[in-house]
Amino acid sequence: MEILRIAAFSDGDIGGNPAGVVIDESLPEANEMQRIAAEVGFSETAFAAREGEGWRVRYFSPESEVPFCGHATIALGAALALQNGDGIYPLVLNAAEITVEGRRDGNTIAAALQSPPTRSAPAKAELVEKALALFGLTVKDLDPRIPPGFAEGGATHLVLALKDRARLAAMFYDLDAGRGLMNAAGLVTIALVYAETEQRFHARNPFASGGVLEDPATGAAAAALAGYLRDIGWPHGGRIEIVQGEDMGMKSRLTAEIPAEPGSSIRVSGTARLM
């Protein structure tokens, strides 16, 4: 079994979020996929096998299975393009059917995914209070233009928008406390974001639910954020750029294209590089 290691949403030939990719004739048993993901040690590993005209895909973090992972999907798209040529590949997830596109360009691969449908809801005050306390923040640190909310685009995230870039850069929290909070609330990540402009965001994504302090690029959260901005009437102009991982020294770039129809799929794209 070959395990590819690919950094998704790279900044040219550097940065990005490493993911494991396993493409085989059939998917291993769940406990074996969990073991492999823990051994690989990246925030997620994608496992894919042929199923009809598409590919059956499951995602595992070092500690648990997750329903959808954007950066691992981008890494998978790059791997499929390298293995089978440029194209759009249908993917069957545990609870959704999506596509990923991969196109080779020299040593890098451009990739784009179509997310599952999006939805959002206001966040409960009690959860927001606990999340702010986790990061040593208060309500005064929040950007009032983007209220705290649940955002989904294949997985559930809590969006907290900060009004100060420096507060985002200073993010720190206890991993065990974060794991308990996220698991109790059914969150895959907490998305801390800062709006530099209406179309350019900076983000940090604690992923304690998967045993990872922070992801340097999170495509699922990018899709969820884009859908949330659409729902609250943010003037996104149909497209946002997200810079993530910069405060970790692993700068990543994600682009989300936002159609007007509420709840519709978000196209999240970037480049990927072999590690």
Question: Can you tag this structure with a few keywords?
Answer:
24% helix; Diaminopimelate Epimerase, Chain A, domain 1; alpha+beta; 275 residues; 2 domains; eight-stranded mixed β-barrel
Gap from first CA to last CA: 17 Å
SSE class: alpha+beta
The number of distinct structural domains comes to 2
What's the overall average pLDDT, rounded?
95
CATH superfamily of the largest domain: Diaminopimelate Epimerase, Chain A, domain 1
State the helicity in percent bands: 10-25%
Describe the fold and architecture.
It is globular, with a radius of gyration of 17 Å. It has 2 domains: 3-113, Roll (Diaminopimelate Epimerase, Chain A, domain 1), CATH 3.10.310.10; 119-274, Diaminopimelate Epimerase, Chain A, domain 1, CATH 3.10.310. Strands 1-2-3-4-6-7-8-17 form an 8-stranded mixed beta barrel. The model has no long low-confidence stretch (mean pLDDT 95). Strand 3 (45-51) and strand 4 (54-60) form a beta hairpin. The protein is built from 6 helices and 17 strands. It is α+β, with helices and mostly antiparallel strands and 275 residues long.
